[in-house]
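Quick start: load a record and inspect it. Here is DMT family transporter:
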Amino acid sequence: MTILMIILAVVGGAFLSIQAAINGQLGSKVGVFRCAFLTFSIGALVTALLIFFFEPKHALTLLDVPKWQLLGALCGVPYIVIMVLAVQRIGAAVATVAVIFGQLAMSMLIDNFGWLGNDAIHFSTTRLGAVVCLGIALFFIYSSNKSKEAPAAETATTRE
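Running the structure step on this input writes:
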């Protein structure tokens, strides 16, 4: 079951990259906030249908849970807006790896301290190695973007 959850998480990550690339293009044509609105509107509609047809009954409703847990819904808005802006400027790969770096760093803090009602999973040298590797990956992916931009800038300068 663990392997299946890891595979599903990887597939979810792939969909986020596809979404970022599409939204970057859409946002440049219709505007960042219109793009974000479309994303959340379609997402809300699809989720409502999934709830209606597939969600089992639960003892609590959204009105019964601790109110701070409802704040998680607000975290998606900055993500979508930032990605729509970032993908247009730095590309889908750099933006996605940067987001994953931020996710990894924050999730390790959440795990280590058991924040937000989660079980504590203490920081280790292996986890530190993962953060360092991802930081290095971000550097190399970003650097490869810069090396491709330099010849293009030189070509534009020589034409003038």
